[in-house]
Write a structure and sequence with these properties.
heterodimer; A: 11 strands; about 55% strand; B: mainly beta; 7-stranded mixed β-sheet; globular
């Protein structure tokens, strides 16, 4: 069975500062990993995904994440935070064997301080 | 706009009642997924259909059922509703059924059970 752990249910950063949202996974088979963003009163939008190609994945809105097998991590980063980045971020995992079920983490609420 | 539509946007009903949530996938997508998002359980996968057939089941209660119709839209039926069923219900769709496929989420239906 696969799972993800998101460290920090709330993260606050100043506008212009580095954003780092942490995600560690547990999977019995090589995983596929995803980051989704949820803005208030909206559905989830895919930011980026790792499907065993390049370990550094670039997504939309300037976000990127690096798959580190040795650390079982897939942390999300953005060099410079914008006010519009304030949202809830979810890390998710699915096994690469064809089972399409997504298992989500508990989410991290990102607040941007002006 | 993900291209996935869900109706209704909000639903308020009483305990013991039955409701139907509707989802139309993106054009060309054959898979439909249902998720429940609640404060205590987070985001949980309920069930998936692919081209009209049930493909995967998650933490779906026996009081809940779903189906996907020949035109590929899907309905989630919730019966004998309890207070704890109050949640945001998301539908997502993807082109295929493989776990690397991006799932595109609808805006959700907020169900309130009084």
């Amino acid at each position: 069975a696969q799972s993800v752990t998101q460290l920090g249910s709330h993260v606050s950063v100043s506008e212009g500062a580095l954003v780092l949202l942490r995600c560690n996974y547990s999977s019995s088979v090589p995983p596929y990993l995803f980051w989704y963003v949820q803005y208030p009163n909206q559905g989830l939008q895919l930011l980026l995904k790792y499907t065993s190609a390049a370990t550094l994945v670039k997504g939309i809105n300037g976000f990127e994440a690096e798959f580190k097998k040795s650390e079982t991590s897939f942390h999300l980063t953005k060099p410079s935070a914008h006010m519009s980045d304030a949202a809830e971020y979810f890390c998710a995992v699915s096994p690469s064997g064809g089972n399409e079920k997504l298992t989500f983490g508990t989410g991290t609420r990102l607040t941007i301080i002006p | 706009d993900s291209g996935v539509t869900q109706t209704p946007k909000h639903l308020i009903t009483a305990t013991g009642q039955r409701v139907t949530l509707r989802c139309s996938p993106r054009s060309g997508d054959l898979s439909v997924y249902w998720y429940q998002q609640s404060l205590d359980q987070g985001l949980q996968f309920l069930i998936q259909y692919y081209n009209g057939e049930e493909r995967a089941k998650g933490n779906i209660l026996e009081r809940f059922s779903a189906q996907q119709f020949p035109d590929l839209h899907s309905e989630l039926n919730l019966s004998s509703l309890e207070l704890g069923d109050s949640a945001l219900y998301f539908c997502a769709s993807s082109q295929d059924w493989t776990s690397s496929d991006t799932q595109y989420f609808g805006p959700g239906t907020r169900l309130t059970v009084l």
